[in-house]
Amino acid sequence: MIPLLIPLHGLGSRQDLPLPLPAAVGAAVLVLLVSFAVLALAWREPRWGGVAGGRGLPGLTRLVDARWFRAILAGLGVFAFAWVGAALWFGRDRVTNPVFGFTYVWLWVGLVPLSLLFGPVYRTANPLGGLARVLQMSGLPTAGLRPLSAATWRRLGSFPAAVGLLAFSWLELVQPDNNTLPVLQGWWLAWVGALIGGTVLFGRRWVAAADPFQAYAVLVSRASPWQRVDGVVHLVNPLRQLGTTRSPAGTWAVVAVLLGGTAFDGFTSTSWWVRTTQSSGLPRELWGTLGLLGMVALITLTFALGVRGIGRLLPAGPLNLLAASVIPIVIGYAVAHYLSLLVLEGQRTLINLSDPLGLGWNAFGTAELGIQQLWLDTPVVTSSLQLLAIVGGHLIGVLVAHELALRVLPLRRRLSGQVPLLLVMIGYTCGGLLLLFSP
Amino acid sequence: MFRSPAAALAAALLLAGCAAAPAAPTASSAPASSVGSPATTPSASPSGTPVPTPSTNVRVVEVSLQNGRATPNGDRLSLPKGTILRLRISADHADEVHVHGYDVEIPVKAGASVSKDIALDQVGRFEIESHEPALTILQLVVS
């Protein structure tokens, strides 16, 4: 009846301490001050006016565009997914199977620092992109069997990826037994199936439009110091990159799903949520689904309200333009919530990766490594990093919103038009602090 | 421009937060003490601070798993590092209680009760869960 000593929940078994109340309140006050200081003191004319720039790096461009370099990255991607794919299909259904840590920690959480530091490398390493190329080389038309018009692609933008990200959030936060092999196998099949099926029908562009991980990586890479300008890699001010890169249609949905998902994750560990859902007669999955959708809806609604001060809700209008300003808040949330998880479970995954099939291998020599606690035994360091991420993300977001708003607002509403969005962003950040304080 | 003053301010606030830290446990121990001394449980020791070990602080929590419900029901329990947490579990069905992070699994037989001591030597927030059905009994905060 009771399973043999197999821990059911191996991942993330230790969570960060709640933020001390004075620190949370202090940070909230700081957020308010910083926000209005930006409004009052920052530049009054668009600083970059939508023109990208920075220091061009032709040598680096030649390197990263070299066939062999791209082949190595793509090869690494294929190898990594083949390795954990073997663990997924032929490994043992235990918490020591590396596929769980790879999916929920390395891939989902690790994409953020990877893309922030190195730009959109995941796009090159993504094995699904490689698979799409292989399909094309074996005779599939570039535009697929049912080509879509350019206008349709423009309208689609990142919406398919937003749906995929919502599905992943549901898997991560609601799906029962999400760290058992059969469940994860089903989701991997659905993911690969949707991507390859779409590629066959609509061509290679589908991967960029629909792969949730690639979309997340590309979104985060817009806050990195690397940007391509006219094909040349530039070292840029991340603020400028966020303020000048184009947001495809549906970027607001991607941002809302990411922010809503992380917020909901924090929300589920409040005692109020635990008590309420456990005392009710309704199934936990129903609560989780409604809670996740409700949180994403709340973010979408508040964002739309905040943006109304800046302009009408046109599909390609301010909603998408200003979604760029929420990207740093998304990153701040992700770092604050998941950095400790990445550090601890990331190491555990590295250890487990040496033995994907549970046969006692030590393929990479990592099987015997211990887990370093690093700063995690010193809660004040963790909470400082959390506050820095949240407040820093907020500050950058507000600056980007300011720049973008200046570009589109008529002169007489240049300041007043920004206030609603500023208030909404303050709401997101203070909400994030409240969730870290975790009442 | 803003970043370094902001960082300095955040750090200062944090230090303030640390200095004021003793305030936090008193605030959060209110639900905890109601956890420790429920009037309904049979072998309840009056305050939750009984028993032989005089030097270490022992916190007794009565856990009951009845009719698919858990008592306590997901409450927050904040304890200082070094405390011994003594779980006294009774259940009307066979179950197992899992203390996350400490990786302690406590099997419970139907209609029986069991007591288990856990030395709280790791800082963090940990869930204490039952498995049949999966319910969060306590959120243990060790600081």
Q: In what order do the strands lie side by side in the largest sheet of chain B? A: 3-9-8-5-6
Q: Tell how many strands the DSSP assignment of chain B holds.
A: 9
**Which percent range fits the helix content of chain A?**
55-70%
Which percent band covers the strand fraction of chain A? Answer: under 5%
- Which consecutive residue ranges of chain A, at least 5 long each, have pLDDT under 50? 1-9
Average pLDDT for all residues of chain B: 73
Taken from the alpha-carbon principal axes, the silhouette of chain B is globular
Number of helices of chain B: 2
Q: Tell me the number of structural domains of chain A.
A: 1
Order of helices and strands of chain A: EHEHHHHHHHHHHHEEHHHHHHH
| Strand segment count of chain A | 4
Number of helices of chain A: 19
Assembly form of the protein: heterodimer
Percentage beta strand of chain B: 35-45%
The first-to-last residue Cα distance of chain B is 35 Å
CATH architecture of chain B: Sandwich
Distance between the termini of chain A: 36 Å
Radius of gyration of chain A: 22 Å
Mean pLDDT level of chain A: 92
Q: Do you know the CATH topology of chain B?
A: Immunoglobulin-like
Number of self-contained structural domains of chain B: 1
Notes on the protein architecture:
The complex is a heterodimer of chains A (439) and B (143). With 439 residues, chain A is an all-alpha fold. Chain A has one domain (21-437). Chain A has helices at residues 21-41, 58-65, 67-90, 98-107, 111-118, 121-125, 127-137, 150-156, 159-173, 181-202, 205-210, 212-221, 238-244, 251-267, 271-279, 284-308, 318-353, 379-408, 419-437, and strands spanning 14-15, 55-56, 226-229, 232-235. Chain A has a 3-stranded antiparallel beta sheet. The two termini of chain B are 35 Å apart. In chain B, strands 3-9-8-5-6 form a 5-stranded mixed beta sheet. Chain B has a 4-stranded mixed beta sheet with strand order 2-1-4-7, with no helix packed on it. Chain B is an alpha+beta fold. The longest helix of chain B is centred in the N-terminal third of the chain and has 17 residues, at 3-19. Chain B has one domain (25-142): Immunoglobulin-like (Sandwich), CATH 2.60.40. The chains are: A mainly alpha (439), B alpha+beta (143). Chain A binds chain B through residues 1-2, 5, 7-9, 13-18, 20-23, 26-27, 30, 34, 37-38, 269, 271, 274-275, 278-279, 376-377, 379-380, 383-384, 387-388, 391-392, 395, 438, and chain B through 2-3, 6-7, 9-11, 13-14, 16-18, 20-21, 23-24, 27, 31, 69-70, 73-76, 94-96, 98, 100-101, 103, 105, 107, 122-127, 129, 131-132, 134-136, 139, 141, 143.
